[in-house]
Amino acid sequence: MEENIRRHCLLNSGARVLLAVSGGLDSVVLLHAMKALAAAWRWHLKLIHVNHGLRGRSSDADERFVCRLATAADIHCHVRRVLVRAAIQPSESMEMAARRIRHRILAQVSRRYRSEAIALAHHADDQVELFFLRLFRGSGSTGLGGMAWKSPSPANTECTLIRPLLDLGRSELTDYAERHGLKWREDSSNLDCSIPRNRIRHQLIPLLESDYCPALRRVVTRCMEILRVDAEFVARSAKPFYSLPDSGRRELHEALQRALAREDLQLEKQPATFESVQHRLEESRDASTEVHIPDLRLIRFGKQKRRIHLETDNKRFSTKTFRLRWSLIRKPKPFPKAMMHGKCHEQFDADRVGIVVELRHWQPGDRFQPLGFRTPSKLQNLFVNRKIPAVKRRALWVAANIEGTIFWVEGLPPGEQFKLRPDTRRILSWSTSRPRYGTRE
Question: What is the tens place of the pLDDT at every residue in 192-239?
Fold first, then answer.
């Protein structure tokens, strides 16, 4: 395990580490091995146990067992009890709900203790089981690559998960535990073959090993490593093309197009399934300035466009159905807490916007980075996520700076790159309204 930590740069000397311990074989081995190395590495260890409350007295016995382990190791133990059955979401299995809740708690406690990493006891057999689970779901190379040695927490990307035992099989962990006289708890639910993972563990893998491939675990592990490296290379290669419009993306290799589509979906917190990725690719390939709607009328994108000089124009722009007013003000001191974005009133950093802006309608391929987003996303996808009808979105206005970067979209939060900051010197105050058709100023 120490060699894994060195090779994969999982931990530094003096790190604060939160150990997730369930009381099973793998987590007991993880605790013992980490404790054995702690003095030499000057690690500060803390332990966490999540009682899911799914097995009644057995769950409580697991909790007491882990607390005794922590006492014997002289490590502080943080225990959380949850009611998983009461927190299951629609279309979510018990196992998925328990995992979601567990990761949320691990991230919360890690932040509380300011841990550099959360150590998990996943091992090589877990990887093989995960490979078949994802294979049967139709996952691509990213999913089939399995778990990484080091990855961000799914509950909070600021928290880091590490898996020091990832290349060790259960048999090796059992040998280690027996050599050191360790005891552990067996989870009776691991024998329940109504759970897909358990059927793969107890039925499918033994069948494949006995009748088809005795070295199945080694072969699958190698395959996962190849897929993971390939997927990481494609994702890294796609990054420079993320800001390209759809017309530019269509010239890329399909592997890069798929990576970009997956990134779009993940940023929008949408499932990156084969169907959703394929739909995004077809959307970008078929994009045009005309769209057919169910009643067979032909709807065209709005062509109105106006270049506005913020400092010299009359501080207003209007059509029969849309009004815009703006003003430039110096930021008062102290910075007012009331300067937040609203539905019809926004405030931007005027120096980042510039003195000339273009006001126009949405066009295919437009990308926008709303407040809180890490990277720009396709406007069409943002509209779909907010359930804005296709006909209505074509009448919405957008504003871009002289470089063409969109900083405002009607009905969406303001642009992340143009938000007010502590170093803001001037504020662009931007107010819009939708008067009734035909009214006059």
Answer: 898 899 999 999 999 999 999 999 999 999 999 999 999 999 999 998
Domain boundaries, the chain: 2-211, 242-287, 299-433
Mean of pLDDT values over 6-34: 96
Mean pLDDT of the chain: 85
Average pLDDT over residues 50-69: 93
The answer to whether domain 2-211 has CATH 3.40.50.2300 is no
Q: What is the dihedral of CA 213, 95, 268, 281, to 10 degrees?
A: 30
Q: Supply the pTM of this predicted model.
A: 0.64
**Is the confidence at residue 283, as pLDDT, over 70?**
no
- What would the two tokens of residue 201 be? 């563990």
- Average pLDDT (61-80) is 96
Question: Where residue 269 falls among pLDDT bands split at 50, 70, 90?
Answer: low
